[in-house]
């Protein structure tokens, strides 16, 4: 367990990148992403004496900037405070080979599905979904539905007794566009970031027809899941995370403002789930 005032790192190992968070006790200081790192960097991290000795590959960008400026600018972040090293490191991973690599770190705790206190979890539930649900529920209360608008669009819910209700998985916004662009002979590849506003529902060109088909069916699906959730749990809360959270929320605000107004947006739910498990109050 991580003690009350410890400075510590959380690491979510994803399928393509590492997702980092620096905590000062229960306070989330900063988050950032890196590529997978070689074992030499892990060894360097294990040998650092202060936070400012963190390998540049791992140093949070806001503090990296501060180090480069040597704190001469009034607007620069403060130096990282003293902390015992090697820093406590809590890991949640969906990549076994990467997990094994980071287990060589001397002050590490690897979180498994069995350690998450939610009731009724099934063995193949993704630890990222379980941690996000636990973090959201313990922060804002249960019943809780978490929508993750990432590569996959997922719904994961638990009731007032902190028992898993269940969920659903479907291809996310970008994945649907990519699938049409790469798996068909004539359809263009659509970039999600290029769609600033809702397309016409009944389009008169191929690009907007793809945008309409994907966006409006995804929004209708989200609306249907949310409305069903509120039928089951009228006071149930909803949190949304993931890379497409902002664009989908903007679309929902345009089409279904009453629904959008009740959503809590929080990109760091997995880190809050980790914090609720590893830190001593």
Automatic annotation (TrEMBL):
Co-factor(s): NH4(+); K(+)
Pfam family for this entry, one: Pan_kinase
Binding-site residues for substrate, renumbered to this chain: 122, 126-129, 206
Protein name: Type III pantothenate kinase
Main location: cytoplasm
InterPro entries per UniProt: ATPase_NBD, Type_III_PanK
BP-aspect Gene Ontology terms: coenzyme A biosynthetic process
Localisation: Cytoplasm
GO molecular function: ATP binding; metal ion binding; pantothenate kinase activity
């Amino acid at each position: 367990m991580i003690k009350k005032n410890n400075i510590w790192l959380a690491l979510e190992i994803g399928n393509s990148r590492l997702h980092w968070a620096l905590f000062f006790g229960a306070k989330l200081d900063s988050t950032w992403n890196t590529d997978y790192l070689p074992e030499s960097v892990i060894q360097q991290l294990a040998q650092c004496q202060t936070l400012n000795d963190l390998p540049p590959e791992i140093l949070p960008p806001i503090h990296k900037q501060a180090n480069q400026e040597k704190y001469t600018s009034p607007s620069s972040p403060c130096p990282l405070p003293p902390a015992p090293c090697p820093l406590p490191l809590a890991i949640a991973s969906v990549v076994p080979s990467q997990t094994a690599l980071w287990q060589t770190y001397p002050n590490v705790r690897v979180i498994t599905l069995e350690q998450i206190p939610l009731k009724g979890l099934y063995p193949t539930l993704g630890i990222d979904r379980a941690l996000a649900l636990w973090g959201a529920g313990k922060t804002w209360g249960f019943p809780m539905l978490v929508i993750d608008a990432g590569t996959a669009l997922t719904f994961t819910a638990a009731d007032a007794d902190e028992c898993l209700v269940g969920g659903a998985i479907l291809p996310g916004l970008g994945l649907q566009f990519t699938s049409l662009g790469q798996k068909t002979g004539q359809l263009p590849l659509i970039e999600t970031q290029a769609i600033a506003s809702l397309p016409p529902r009944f389009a008169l060109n191929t690009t907007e027809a793809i945008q309409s088909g994907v966006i409006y069916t995804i929004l209708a699906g989200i609306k249907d899941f949310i409305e069903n959730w509120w039928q089951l749990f009228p006071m149930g809360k909803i949190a949304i995370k993931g890379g497409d959270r902002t664009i989908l929320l903007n679309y929902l605000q345009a089409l279904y403002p009453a629904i959008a107004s009740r959503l809590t947006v929080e990109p760091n739910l997995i880190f809050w789930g980790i914090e609720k498990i590893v830190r001593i109050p």
